[in-house]
Request: fold
Amino acid sequence: MPDTVSININGVAHDVEAGQRLIVAAESVGEVIPRFCHHDKLEPVGKCRMCLVEVEGPRGKVLMPSCTLLVSDGMVVDTESAVVKKAQEGVLEFLLINHPLDCPICDKGGECPLQDQTMQWGPGESRFVEAKRNFEKPIPVSDVVLLDRERCVLCDRCVRAADDIAGDPLLTFIDRGNHVQIQTFPNEPFSSYFSGNTVQLCPVGALTSVDYRFKARPWDLGHTRSVSFVDTVHSSVDAQTSRGKLVRVYGIENDRVNEGWLSDKDRFIFSAVHSPDRVTAPLVRGDDGFEEASWSDAMALVASRLGGYLGGEVGAIGGANNTNEEAYTLAKFMRSVVGSSNLDAQLGDGLNPHLAATVTPRATIDDLDRAATIFVWGPDLKETLPVLYLRVRKAVRNGATLVVASPAGTGLDAIAAHVVRYRAGSGSDVLRKFASGDKGYEGAREALDAGPVVGLVGRSSLAEDPMMAEAAAGVVRSLPDSKLLTLLTRANIYGALDMGLAPNLLPGRVSTADDEHAEMLEDAWGHLPRGTGRSTTQMLEDLASGAMRAMVLVGADPVRDCPDPGLAQRALEAAEFVVAFDAFVTDSSIHADVILPAAVWGEVSGTATNLEGRVQEVNASVRPAGQARSLNAALDDIAHLMGVDLRAAKVADVTREIAAVAPAYAGITPDHLTFESDGDGVIVPLEGEQPLKFIPVEVSVPVVTSRLTLHFPDALYDDGVWNRNAPTIAGLARQAEARLHPRDASMLPVHEGDIVSIEERFVMPVTLDDTVPVGSIVVPRNVVGTKGLTASTSVKVEAVEGGA
Amino acid sequence: MTAAANWEAGRRERAKTMLGAYPDRRSAIMPLLYLASLEYGHVTEQAMTDVAELVGVTPAQVQSVASFYTMFKREEVGKYLVSVCTSISCHLLGGDAVIDAVEDATGVERGRTGDDGTFSVERAECIGACGGAPAVQVNYETVEGLTPDKAKALVKWLADSQPEVVLADEMQQLFGGVRSFDWGPLESEGPVAAVPAFGPFGSAKEGR
Amino acid sequence: MTWISDLLGPFKGFAVTMRQVGKPRVTRKYPQEKRVKPPRFHGRHVLNRYEDGMEKCIGCELCAGVCPANCIYVRGADNPPDNPVSPGERYGFVYEINMLRCIYCAMCVEACPTEAITMTHLFEMSVTSKEDAIYTKDELLVDPDGTPNHPQAESPLIDVKELRLGDGWMRATSSAGRAEYEGVVAWTPQARNPDLPVEAGQSAESTGGDDG
Reply:
């Protein structure tokens, strides 16, 4: 119970939490004080003076800015006196002096705090008759954000957000007095992964986004609360539509998850939903390529072909971009109708499903705020889970000690107290030394002994042995007062694993080895093949060798995302029958015999589970493109054609069934999820314990010994099908580059900017980087120019003659 | 490999000393900007980028500091920077006539630099010489009690004799009038460029 | 004596007719002859232009927002800088009014910040299909000389002059409101004062961004 103080606002006494800013305390008791620069998630600056209130002091009542004033016991505040009113009118008249009042053409018009507060608190007329400030407008401060300086009221919100929250202080004030303006440095754009947040924060229309420019007005927007499917953090978003199209995505303050912040990819990827390249009708391979077919013909074909194989000859890959309900239906369809346990939502790019889905003790995202030490062993959070990166930044800002281990520089290095750098492939060696507090690692090791510790463990790159994360998890587990979060990154992968889309998991975080539960599930489903199925890599190998014959691809693109793209290519070419549920013709689904158009994020409703195990509602905001359908509806129909009733046509039925048969999800009702009730979702299991608890132990991982080992990390803006189809961010896709330590470069020999070839196929320029350990090379995965590169542990690198 | 590594050796050393003098590296931004402007002639974009690299902040943050203080010149400044005060005291006692006279004599508009690079003219906020208003500074060396005619003579003297080092006392004797404090110590050092004559940044004694 | 009243019965009915014979007629030979509409008559809308031919509509969608019948569809777009459609950054890219839904309340006229949409005295809008009742921007926009677009403008039955007068309702409810502001454009979408130099600082070229 926090301390309370008693304050008197407008003659009414209130007990409020101590240590708060007056503006926040007043709002909590229903007295709203107008503000521009104050924002709950930013440090107070007291710049705009809009929040002036009268506070009684020893020398009588004085005007004080309530956003920088801490409440104290016995404080007497007047927010409505004539003096306050005059101050507010004065401040607003002052702020409006240089404001162009071009509200009808301004994108903020209609949802603008300046408009609203001028209406409520402002003077009726301005006495200012002189010429206003004049700027070139709008100027692009980044690829996604435009700046209209004359609309700016100099509140400092964007500057603070860019600096304190995102750590990219690229926007600043320049000049002073009546010449002050917001600026970037010349030729250094505001290229932050979080620049879109400033658009949402801006209390006027000074910062606007390129892709929403003049698209709609606030009053014709439809709002749907949902979660972002860009990564596994599942940031709460407000998907805004106009005339049946998504036009904008805003962050929602879900303090347990994203605190209102979004990455630019979360914010701008929605335009891919309306891409003209979407598959909008079933495509069936004919004599000369794909031909459009009716759903009934396509489904009849799928049903008859899939029914013609033995269960084990069919496998399914994918399901991570779908809702829990869709994933559950896929798992049920494959296991009970097709009769196959060959299911994997991960593409060989993840972790042991038991570790990812059932790690114990599992941390929550807001455990980061309570941690004394945060230990990151895994991918670069800034590139893969940007919103989690912000949460870690916040925790560090508030005093947590950060220890980062990675095979190359990461976005967190700048704020880390200890950076443990290891050469890609030799992580286990370093981990062992580190765990034992070996020479050189004492400081980091000591930091870990100060609990509570939150360990964020994952696979630093596709080229790393997935056991490495398990070994790191084991080390964290051995610390007292430690909790773990695993770092898988693909959309709803945690939901998919929880729904049994893994060779060794059944729905509800149950191992396939749990016979008791399997029997119960068999009763519910009618049929259930026992035992462990094949993983994606095994499936692809078996397809290529002919041991398996058919494949169901669900929004998965193994040719791009598997560690061995060549194998995926061979496997899909060798398969007798491939059916793909996909929104796009991808490098993988192009090998399919039937492509069924899938409804995607924004078009489907259901639930989703994030990396901490939080189940949240996903809501459709637009109708599916063309004839696209949700996976559960399509599978329900196909199952009917195969003579089985999946009872999956309605999402609500599936949600109920999950609550009934999936132990970890037991007792979940729509009431837990609707955003109206609490809004932040619930962490499962609600009560009791799930049947499977994976407790990581320290395992040994072989060290790779080769001349040049490969670190193959993911990039935020990659060359994936979604990024490519979202025009706003498509141009931001990273280009291939090989980062080398100067010493390795001199041995090749190459210089900065020279061209090298990797595995004799991939050519890219060299960047010298002394954060890369000697003996390894860093190449971003799945960016422009690295498609098809195998994630092997070591690579052959050669200088290309006549390059650069 | 920062661009500041290419600075003149003495300045590199000074930069190192300055960075060491502050517990928080950011605090060194302002003195380093003076150094950088000696290196490049004025605070160029390159100068700001160099300082940002040295201090470990973004160039935008350095630009924010550099543009706040009017004495960091982001455009090229002439050999003699004539700053005419037009704040209250000087304004009341004819500072505006003085700046008009200076503009006339130099042929340079306020806020600009002449084509031959001899003069820059600017309007300054209070330079702390209210007792001797109107006051003018040449390369931050103050002359008090000027009239438009005396100001013209001052400009002519500067243009003709082109002194290497500008000294306040010399100018005051030749062209000045009423002084705020006639008991002030004599200054023997003057600046050699349009930056203030602070010891570490280059003054008459040290030479360039 | 009922037989007498029975006898006169048929003639009684003509009494009304007889009373009216000498009075002036109120019916007109429409469409050859037309009644003068009151000044604030709510007829079909037009989209106006400035005197230099630029469109007044800036695509702000306030008319669509205020419309109680939801019959207006507007979409704004970036004004091409080399060949601007309207002054300012934004112009009405799509402008459609469904005249079947419209209730001629003129709230769009009141809402318009630039007096771009006004109502005329034109009321003859019969159509042969529902699609034709949706007036597009081409049909709504006046000619450069201010003449409303009319499909039968050549017909002697159409009084284009009257159409050009605009309507009194617009004058009574214009954005400036008060009578002394009549005819004065109180708001222009030009945020920039063309007579002033642009302030120093960064320009679009030096920010390094690609778009804009």
Summary: The longest helix of chain A spans residues 324-338. The domain at 132-220 of chain A is CATH 3.30.70.20 (Alpha-Beta Plaits). Chain A has five domains: 4-95, 132-220, 283-349+493-683, 354-486, 709-799.
